[in-house]
Design brief:
five-stranded mixed sheet, D-Maltodextrin-Binding Protein, domain 2, Fructose-1,6-Bisphosphatase, Chain A, domain 1, 7 helices, globular, binds 6-O-phosphono-alpha-D-fructofuranose, alpha+beta, 2 domains, eight-stranded mixed sheet
Length: about 350
């Protein structure tokens, strides 16, 4: 029971109850989401053990138990593949950890899953929150056909589900199937995710801006002007905003989802198309934030409408509260630098 003496609802119970709202549902997507929940529990255990493993043995070495210490992002990738192979619902996975597509044994699976199995993994050594991101599509080809990469080239609007897991002070899972955003907290003592909030709504405007200001000198003029706007004093618009940047997209966006504000990863000299990946970072988080009432664009165009051409393509992203994102877009438009012909 929770503080209000209400019965706690597990992730599995919630998924089944949501499925029952669709009489024609086959249960395949429900099973897929449960499989991701299983991978999340296993990854969470390993991430939270990592500190001890590092004490007991370094990556690539054997720890005192004689176990080979794997890089956590390799381990997480293996867990996502293993979990999604349990049922015959997924025909293909595209992972940040693998260059090409990963075909699963069941070529007849209905779904395709994009995943960043452990986003922000460079932060593990400094004990900063990291995350798993996933995005689910229905294949375009017939299930009797052999799935190809063309099956996976679909814009973000075609996602049937998306979500993330954040491994922080607690492990939380957030997902949407297009009917709002639900969040769950893992109770590691019994290995269950329990419903925390079944319809998360992002504040219309928030007092945080999240961007790596180290690349300030290579930003376009409009972005420089917007960040200066965030730093000006104006009580009516909650300014100056607080700067919060963890360097782990899932953690930065999770704060924005709960508290409001804006997360930005722009173009820069080092990343002319932005650093973050469209298909398994920007699209799934854009789906989540839009379902919570927020906005996500590349500065000009809605992220979910960006036409993909490559499974690993990068994309600039401005994501968060509607009013914050629209103000940033206004500055970009007002100071748009016309390329010198
Ligand atoms: P920078 C982590 O490496 C990551 O892919 C995202 O999780 C994060 O938002 C971004 O890169 C941080 O990049 O250039 O600020 O270190």
């Amino acid at each position: 029971m929770n503080q209000k003496n209400e019965r706690l609802i597990t992730l599995e119970e919630f998924i089944i109850s949501a499925q029952n709202r669709f009489p024609g549902a086959t249960g395949e997507l429900s099973q897929l989401l449960r499989d991701i929940g299983l991978a999340a529990k296993i990854i969470s255990r390993e991430v939270n053990k990592a500190g001890i493993t590092n004490i007991l043995g370094f990556e690539g070495s054997e720890n005192v138990h004689g176990e080979r210490v794997k890089k956590l992002d390799v381990f997480s990738n293996e867990q996502m593949i293993s979990a999604l192979s349990r049922s015959n619902n997924v025909c293909m996975i595209i992972s940040e950890e693998s260059d090409g597509i990963i075909r699963l044994k069941s070529s007849s699976g209905k779904y395709i899953v994009y995943t960043d199995p452990l986003d922000g993994s460079s932060n593990i050594d400094v004990n900063v929150s990291i995350g798993t991101i996933f995005s689910v599509y229905v294949r375009k080809s017939h299930r009797a056909d052999y799935p190809t990469i063309d099956d996976a080239i679909q814009d973000g609007l075609s996602q049937v589900a998306a979500g993330y897991v954040i491994y922080g002070s607690s492990t939380m899972l957030a997902y949407t199937t297009g009917l709002g955003v639900s969040t769950f907290t893992l109770d590691p003592s019994i290995g269950e995710f329990f419903l925390a909030d079944q319809d998360v709504k992002i504040p219309k405007m928030g007092p945080f801006y999240s961007i790596n200001e180290g690349s300030y000198n290579s930003w376009e003029q409009g972005l420089k002007k917007y960040v200066k706007y965030c730093q000006e004093e104006d009580k009516e618009t909650m300014r100056p905003y607080s700067a919060r940047y963890i360097g782990s997209m899932v953690a930065d966006v999770h704060r924005i989802l709960l508290k409001g504000g804006i997360f930005i990863y722009p173009r820069s000299k080092s990343y002319p198309n932005g650093k973050l990946r469209l298909m398994y970072e920007c699209n799934p988080l854009a789906f989540i934030i839009e379902q919570a009432g927020g906005k996500a664009s590349d500065g000009l165009k809605r992220i979910l409408e960006v036409k993909p051409t490559d499974i690993h393509q990068r994309c600039p992203i401005f994501i968060g509260s509607k009013e914050n994102v629209e103000m940033a877009e206004k500055f970009l438009k007002e100071y748009k630098e016309v390329p010198v012909s």
